[in-house]
Specification:
Layout lengths: L2 H28 L3 H32 L9 H19 L5 H21 L3
Helix pairs in contact: 1-2, 1-4, 2-3, 3-4
Amino acid sequence: MPYEFYKVLHLLAILALFTSMGGLAMVAIRGGSDEEKKKARKPLMIIHGVSLIVIFVAGFGLMARLGMMGNGWPTWIFGKLGVWLVLGGASAMLKKPMGATWYLILPVLGAVGAALAVYKPG
């Protein structure tokens, strides 16, 4: 598959991931009974999980197209994997009433991931 395909797929999955996390934060903020929250969270968690998998696979596809699958990965790849792991665990934190705090943290994580991809430090 061409580089452009992987890039569009990667970006689409990132958009879906942030959309699902925004929805999860809203569910946490909104409140309601546990049953209502569970019903609202289920489709958002599915989108969250599928998005994480697609981001991972498309990211490695991009790396392969850029010839980075050799001996050593650049440092910025490890930073992107760290951001990916934190975003993966964020769904558990968005269950709590502190979900509003994640409205501040999530854009910063997105900006860090974007900066690592654009500037490729190290």
